[in-house]
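FAQ

Q: What does a record look like?
A: Structure on top, sequence underneath. For example:
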């Protein structure tokens, strides 16, 4: 019987998406072989998690840089002295959190970011989990008729309604106390295929999301909305999802082309503080 040469212990968290990786210290320098195993798990599961990590900002940056160039976030508050690291913070008195709707980060960019390395510094005593959904599993489960209807369809994505001036006004009117910076920089618009072929795995996946997709190319918003809403609710059916329970020192790295995610806002009165580094992606095909 062939012996596995794997040095890491990969434990899936659900049937469709996500795996915890045990046996890795991300603050150490990772050999190329070990890094290749981690990459394989990332491609196999769409999002990977590590427990009990102690990362200085420099370690966090060094790990993120193994994956690609770092994207400096335009809208999130940076960590003091580390502009490459964005804070994902909710204070006990804040009612709203960042990322509470299902979404794919940066789909408004012409070249969307590959993914983010999120590191937990403070977690609530209960709640504050993050949900992930596999866009490939969701695509595979569509009927052949729907797959053909989506074939060749493209959609507009934008940052304007989410991070621009109007968004800030809407949010304060609706009691949203999460402040984003630089609303004047929310000028990104992009058109992407509704179904992507993943550049590394070759799997097809749904690529529209409720935060940033506005409408299909050549369709009005009114025409687009019913089909978009159907795709959002289909893509996040429980059978395509996995749920990650954070602990202090947990790390997640997700692939924006493979998954959507949603940060559950169920820990009122408690602090949750994460450091996020986003890695640049490559042009979509
Ligand atoms: C995000 O959407 O980047 C935030 C995810 C989280 O806080 O769990």
């Amino acid at each position: 019987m062939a012996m596995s040469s794997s040095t890491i212990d990969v434990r899936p968290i659900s049937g469709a998406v996500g795996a915890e990786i045990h046996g890795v210290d991300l603050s150490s320098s990772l050999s190329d072989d070990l890094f290749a195993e981690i990459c394989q798990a990332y491609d196999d599961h769409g999002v990977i998690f590590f427990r009990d990590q102690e990362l200085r900002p420099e370690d966090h940056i060094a790990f993120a840089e193994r994956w690609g160039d770092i994207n400096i976030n335009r809208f999130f508050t940076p960590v003091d002295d580390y502009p490459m690291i964005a804070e994902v913070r909710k204070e006990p008195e804040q009612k709203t959190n960042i990322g509470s709707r299902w979404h794919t980060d940066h789909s408004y960019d012409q070249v969307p970011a590959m993914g983010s390395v999120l590191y937990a510094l403070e977690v609530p005593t209960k709640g504050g989990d993050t949900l992930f959904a596999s866009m490939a599993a969701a695509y595979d489960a569509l009927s052949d008729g729907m797959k053909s209807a989506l074939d060749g369809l493209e959609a507009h994505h934008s940052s304007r309604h989410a991070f621009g001036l109007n968004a800030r006004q809407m949010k304060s009117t609706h009691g949203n106390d999460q402040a984003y910076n630089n609303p004047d920089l929310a000028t990104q618009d992009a058109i992407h295929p509704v179904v992507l072929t993943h550049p590394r795995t070759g799997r097809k996946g749904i690529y529209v999301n409720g935060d940033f997709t506005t409408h299909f190319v050549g369709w009005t918003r009114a025409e687009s909305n019913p089909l978009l809403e159907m795709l959002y609710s289909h893509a996040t059916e429980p059978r395509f999802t996995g749920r990650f329970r954070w602990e202090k020192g947990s790390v997640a790295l997700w692939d924006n082309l493979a998954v959507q995610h949603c940060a559950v806002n169920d820990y009122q009165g408690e602090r949750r503080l994460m450091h996020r580094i986003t890695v640049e992606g490559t042009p979509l095909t």
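Q: Is there anything notable about this one?
A: The chain has a mean pLDDT of 91.
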